Amino acid sequence: MCRPVFCFLLWVLAFPIGAAPRLSAEDELASQADSRLFSRGEYLARAADCAACHTASPNAPFAGGVGLATPLGAVYSTNITPDPKTGIGNYSFEDFDRAVRQGIAKGGRRLYPAMPYPSYAKLSEDDVRALYTYFLQGGVDAIARESRESDIPWPLDMRWPLAVWNGLFLDEKRFEPRADKSERWNRGAYLVQALAHCGTCHTPRGIAFQEIALDERQEGFLAGGSLGGWDAYNITSHPKAGIGGWSDEELLRYLRTGSTPGKAQAAGPMGEAVQHSFRYLKDEDLQAIVDYLRSVPPVDDGRPKARYEYGAPANDVVKLRGTPVRQPGQAGPDPQHEGARLFLGNCASCHHWSGEGAADGFYPALMGNTVLGAQSPTNLLQVILNGVSRGDEASPDAAFMPAFHDSLDDAQIASLANYLFERFGNPQVKVNAEDVARLRPR
Ligand code: HEC
Ligand code: HEC
Ligand code: HEC
Fold it and tell me: For heme c 2, which residues are the binding ones (predicted)?
């Protein structure tokens, strides 16, 4: 790993540390056990993606303040660093377990289920202990930062009804492995249902914001939900409505890198989950997830083809040659060609004028892309408005697409999207300017 001279220097520098008073054999064993627990806690915090909601800025990990939209108004995540005043420094293990698994903060304050405790309720005691060690015994720096009140107006912000909610919808039982299934399947089930809480986004919600199913035995599990202005598609085993038509390798690649050519790329909240959580999972854990997904009962939505089966390469650049360009100030959009022109002017430089993308998939093809084969325009509009930003520069799988919310207005994005759906996607989807306005970042 290191050059000889440099290694030598490192060794000299490290020597005084290595020569510190020796620990007794028991201490050493105990500290080894601690550090194992500790790194397991770190891994689990990644798998559970606590940072997705508790880290608003990378300079203040876990200090809270992330706004999460609920039907009643935004709820803000709290500070879960070990700061005793503003964070959870005073939490005992029991306090921590109650907050994470039952949604009750120290002192009895009920948490909104925007904190996914209905999924974390299934966590094993060992795993909660490892998380506790990581968060409170040295893995996370204390940061003093007051938590912010929710935007939910009085009297809806009263928290006692949440006790009733828990009574109706919270299942406090920890995960119980199914004896009729393999160890790997059970590991996958645990990851999907509890730690990685895929259902938080992918399971439809009922009238009280509850997930309608919490495991594969209940109807509707992972049948598609919407969260934070994005659609999290049906990922049941159904070959058309879900991911039944994806190969194991395609699913693994999607979870590990966020991009599977010919199928989908992960943007928005899924891009973040890949970036901060799934790409750190061990291969055997990702494989267990895929194994389990295969067994989630199919939920059909009646669609005729899978989301990735739409579209053909375009040749509009040829057709448009020699047609008159709309002059500035000329009334109304040119309904025939405005979308094609916007595509050629704004998107084709990366996605190619035929829409086939780059040969290596770095710029993905637009046909055979689930965002364009979906039944709702939501994710395509989000991608055009906000672009794609996944991974940091150091990561080999980083992907970046610019946002167009400043350069294109609502009507332009609507004509562009209509063109894209017609050419490369599901031609039944129609978009108007109001659909765009609703999603435009404010
Ligand atoms: C999907 C978003 C989300 C994820 C993921 C998430 N949290 Fe939370 N968490 C929240 C929100 C929102 C609150 C505040 C809820 C409220 O104020 O009612 C919260 C509150 C808490 C609290 C209560 C602290 C206090 O005293 O106010 C603890 C402890 C906590 N989370 C720990 C965790 C841990 C540990 C993880 C990872 C295993 C995690 N959270 C993952 C959204 C999330
Ligand atoms: C924070 C919300 C969130 C969580 C948690 C989440 N997803 Fe997603 N997922 C999404 C969104 C949103 C999309 C659509 C992304 C896009 O269109 O770019 C998506 C897309 C996908 C797709 C692609 C489906 C398609 O047809 O394009 C797969 C597969 C997937 N998720 C699997 C999972 C699995 C497995 C987990 C848990 C290990 C998970 N997701 C957790 C929000 C989430
Ligand atoms: C500078 C290059 C660039 C430009 C310009 C560009 N894109 Fe992209 N686009 C990308 C990259 C990179 C990705 C993400 C690839 C990945 O996730 O691996 C992407 C992804 C996408 C996706 C898939 C997103 C998903 O969630 O599945 C769609 C759809 C898309 N672009 C449409 C467009 C449209 C429409 C335009 C023009 C308004 C456009 N792109 C302009 C580079 C670009």
Answer: 198, 201-202
Query: Do 308-324+333-439 and 183-295 fall under one CATH topology?
Result: yes
User: How far away, in angstroms, is 235 Cα from ligand 3 center?
Assistant: 22
Structure tokens at 434: 């109001």
Query: Do 440 and 411 touch, CB atoms closer than 8 A?
Result: no
Q: Which pLDDT score is estimated for 22?
A: 55
- Cβ–ligand 1 distance for 201 under 6 Å, the answer no
Where are the chain's structural domains?
31-169, 183-295, 308-324+333-439
Residue 290 CA: nearest ligand 2 atom is 35
The hierarchical CATH code for the domain 308-324+333-439 is: 1.10.760.10
What is the distance in A from the centroid of ligand 2 to the CA of 283?
A: 18
128 φ, ψ (degrees, to nearest 5) = -65, -35
- CATH label, 183-295, candidates 3.30.450.40, 1.10.760.10, 3.90.220.20, 3.40.190.10: 1.10.760.10
Q: Is 7 annotated as a binding residue?
A: no
405 is in an annotated binding site: no
CB of 93 within 6 A of ligand 3: the answer is no
**For the segment 97-110, what is each residue's pLDDT rounded down to a tens digit?**
999 999 999 999 99
User: Residue 261 pLDDT more than 80?
Assistant: yes
Atom 37 of ligand 1, nearest CA residue: 50
User: 72 vs 45, which has greater pLDDT?
Assistant: 45
Average pLDDT, the chain: 90
| Residue 347 annotated as lining a ligand binding site | yes
